[in-house]
Amino acid sequence: MNTRGLGSQLKDSIQICELSSSTGAYGIQDTLRTGFTSVKNELLPSHVLELSERNFQINQEKMNFSTLRNIQGLHAPLKLQMEFKAAKQIQRLPFLHSSNIALDSLKGNDDYIGFEDFLNDPSQSEIMGEPHVMMEHSLGLL
Questions:
Q1: What pTM, to 2 d.p., does this model score?
Q2: Mutual angle of helices 75-89 and 56-72, in 10-degree steps
């Protein structure tokens, strides 16, 4: 456990990137799409639990892998990580949405219905690219 204090945890875990506003077609910030910008919101989390919630899934996987290693040995988490990596590589063509059902079933997320299951429907997406252009871009021809 890190005993350096909360200030050092925030500094180590928050990635400080360039402060650049997203510009629209006319070279000014598109406030309707991106909202109002604040330097304070980009540097520090707005709530104490935001950092914990942002890293919850990663911390949960680390804890599960360490528990599995202690119970079954080193081979079990390595085998699961290889299966996760192989399931992440299975995808459809770039212009079609992939549900990643194999990865969800390996992680156990196929039993739960979250807000992304009915609010993030890819068939209702406003962004659809040209299939030929997207394939050429993914193959590095463009």
A1: 0.55
A2: 140
- pLDDT tens for each residue of 9-19: 444 444 444 44
Give the end-to-end CA distance of the chain in Å, rounded to a whole number: 47
Look-up: residue for tokens 């871009």?
137
Q: Cβ(93)–Cβ(131) under 8 Å? A: yes
| DSSP H or E segment with residue 13 | helix 6-13
A 10 A CB-CB count for 104 gives: 14
d(CA 3, CA 42): 25
Which pLDDT tens digit goes with each residue over 87-108?
998 888 777 777 788 998 998 8
